[in-house]
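The passage that follows is intended for readers who have already worked through the single-chain material. We present the inputs for a multi-component assembly, then the predicted structure in tokenized form, and finally a short commentary. You are encouraged to pause after the input and sketch how you expect the pieces to fit together before reading on.
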Amino acid sequence: MPSLSRRRLLSGGATSLVAAPFWNLLSPRAHAATGSGHATRLLVLFSPNGTVHEHWRPQGTEHDFSFAPGSILEPLARHQDDLLILDELDFWDADNHDAGMAAMLTGQGTASDESGGLSVDQYVAQAIGGDTAFRSLEFGVQTSAWGGTTSTRMSYAGPGSYVTPDDDPLNAYVRLFGDQASDAADLERLRARRVSVLDLAHDELAELDKRLGAQERIKLEAHTEALRAMEKSLTSDLSCDAPLAPDAFSVYDNDSFPRIADAQLGLALQALSCGITRVASVQLSHSVAPVVFSWEGVSQEHHSLSHIDDSNTAGVQDFVTTERWYMDRFADVLDQLKALPDPDGGGSLLDTTLVLWASELGDGRDHTCTSVPWILAGPAGGAFNPGRYLKLGGESHASVLLSLCHAMGLQNETFGLAELCPGPVGVL
Amino acid sequence: MLLLPLLPLLSACSVGYDTMAPEAAPTPTESGSYGACAEDPEPPPRLLRRLTHGQYDASVQAVLATDQAPGEAFAPDDVSGWFDNHADALKVSALLADQYRSTAEALAAQAPLEALLPCDPDLDGPSACALQFIDEVGYAAFRRPLAETDLLRYHGLWSSVASEDGFSEGLRWVLTAMLQSPHFLYRMELGEPDGGERFRLTDWELASVLSYTLWDSPPDTTLMAAAAAGELQDVAGRADQVARMRDDPRLADQASRFVDDWLHLDQLAYVAPDADAYPGFTDTLRDDMRGETHRLVADVVRTDGTLADLILAEQGYRTDALADWYDLPAGNGAADADGFREVTLDGDTDVGLFTQGSLLTTHALPESSSPVHRGVVIRERVLCQELAPPPPNQDVSTPPVDPDQSTRDRFEQHTSDPACTGCHDLIDPLGFGFESYDGVGRWRTDDEGHAIDDSGAITATASSNGTFSGVRELSEQLAASPDVGACVVEMWLTWATGQDDQECAAEALFAGTTPAELGLVAPLEALLAQEGLSLRAGDADALGTPATGARVDLDVVSIDDDGDYADPVPDPLEGLLEWTLTESGSWGDGYCSDGVVTNLGAEVLTWSFSTEIRGEIDNLWGAVTVPEGDALRFSGDSWNTELAAGSSTTFGFCAVL
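Having made your guess, compare it with the prediction:
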């Protein structure tokens, strides 16, 4: 948990928080209601395998920049004023697919660091997710054909402990909205039954726990925690009508990738706008993913394309095509965030939702984690001043994660491995 | 499971036995060079092993007599080490807990209660009968007798539900709870204290060890009877059961599961051959390729064959469509239910496991073969020498398809950089041996017009180094290699025990064994034949397994007296009568509704239905009502009590709130 003894004033007009230093430990609900000066929701999006900077970088200066025709970021042009484009952002002391993936959202934190080895989505959720049905929600698009591995997971509940995303939109839909069709009295009875079953399981786990040594108990503690989280989600009321159910997909069918992506992004936005959660992530495939963008007329795997050198202009162009497809999705998400109202009142959902689009590599051809192409979007409730192209000069990405935490109203002093996190990023 | 990514071009390389050692000395550690193994090794730790999703399916199928396989859609598990079934990695997350819950509710709702009931609630009394049900179904679900605390716990749940919703609904929620119980979801290998920090597995736990190891399924009734008779604690008793279970086709299925996981063949479902490069490749062909491999594995198990028999098989099974895809003659004789017929292989270009489409298509690129993918799978999974990932700041681009060059030339040129050869010398000479097969498993005599060179070499092994030409010769050398024998034994033991660090166990059981000497499922049999199979190590002050003895005498279990647990009588008009109520007007504290009832059946009926309404009726026409719990039962007034087939009548009411 964040340190309480060494608080620092936050930039971005969040000084009122200092008057209530315990809010994120004791009273997340009260905090959410104040809602000034920081974001109250976080959406983390991911696409893998890095970029080709020549086709990614905007042209121009911090406040006066543009996207070249045909470049990777061009689809975002209509949202330019809402973006913070982070160039020259480095993962310190990490290179390659697996190390990049592991460091991306954790900043390489360990159990003894302030962030405890959690990924930033989980860390923020721990602070602000207490008043919603789900502390956080993880959606995936074809993340799991290889099982859970360092290259297929970005969200961490602790050091080495992956949070598994749900790759199936229909399963996610039923989990979020499935009970809403029920008659109110029937639903109440069903919930009572489910709680009885969970109570029984808790009794069994507690009894079993006594029979175990310390080593075997870890697993039962995780199980017990999972049941508690489930009970909360099963007994929470929805504050909006259930949307239409997504189609049933064969979740690993390559050519269904775009439709699954749209369904999962839509569910994440609905979950945020309905107040079902404050922290959502959508992981679009995974590091080294072999997705073939056949729907864009591309026939090589995305990972192979990410390794094509500049002499193969057709191949690089195919890679740019795939990256532009991802940025089209990003632009759609921002359209929807602007159109949806903030459930806590006021303006649009984008006003209070901080969006991060992350990747795990810089230039994929080099397998390095320098100049990793990250983009932040939204004013974060006033914490950020978007519409800027920022050259960070090799700043540590852990510092960006720290600034992100502060923009969410947290007061941690470091994020990730402390020595890799010099402090929040000034220009943010 | 983890499919190793295409490992691009590596600068320096190191190979270790079962270790990722990027910083190690550049000289490869030779495989087979184990550290010292203890004379008297520690027993494995006490374990809770959460069922894999496949084991979950087999287990619900056994308990509920269903053929559904809901576990296939569960959240995938984490890979730890070589496989995704490591005991430490099999956990219950909030997502999986919710999938267990929704699946349990759905399965319980469909469960064949009458078939599962061992008693008659009318004759035996509902409460006593529910207790028998819990005892019986719980024995199957928990794979052990229920202790009195278990019985009382589930009877309490039954009773609380049944008092509101009747006998059967109570049983359904008992099933729902049992399918979410840790006693169902985990294979317990806890044992009873046996002095000091030693524990001894119970008879029931041993039954599960045998059945999940050999069949991936819960114990059958014969095995449970052997457990009840205490026959599994000694080696001879276990051997009898293993001998019996060996002849069951479930053992062959288990071997196929292992081969899939061993060589990542489960990934065949996900690879995406390019439609332009390989027109005509279909999902049916993927299934046929998996089926070809599984049938070969089953044949080897059935005939008590060796690993070498699998690698060098000259008989196989194919569908006609797959034979056509390979451009090989169709098989002879009758086709099985899936269209497979026995084929005789030529023993040269078409021989054994490593020329099968499943392996060759899984380990390829969308538009071409891949010497790197194929070399890596042999190096890492058949020789157990793990490769370090490529270092950063190297040009790791894959050579693009080039009509002017063969695949081999493209890759050789691309790896000729001295910085790359360190690792690629370990990978490519193995992979080049597969160059006579394209990216979708077909033999070819030229590579897009270029001559094929399928010569290769096995290097950096303890005792298997040599040169070869083509997969047939590679397979012969691998089949004679003690390095391969040691590797596959260790793979088997790791997979079967859910524990890593099995080198010493492998060496103790099969030191120096070549694939030609190694029965394909011999590692499983040897594992189960060990004298120390039942021993576990754990904290001395921990308690034992929840229930260890015989089944409880239900007559002495003190349960509540039978109350009113009658099932609600289903409405006899269900499906025959349709009714609607439509609000026709409302004001501050009241409203009116119009009703229509329709006889959907082919016979005259006397209509009535029950529903809750808001407020109290103060004006009613065309119907009469009687209270029914919180609801009202509507039926016809004197003149419209009966409805002719297909006809409707109307009524209405106004109510005050």
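Commentary: The radius of gyration of chain B is 32 Å. The first helix of chain B runs from residue 53 to 64. How closely did your sketch match?
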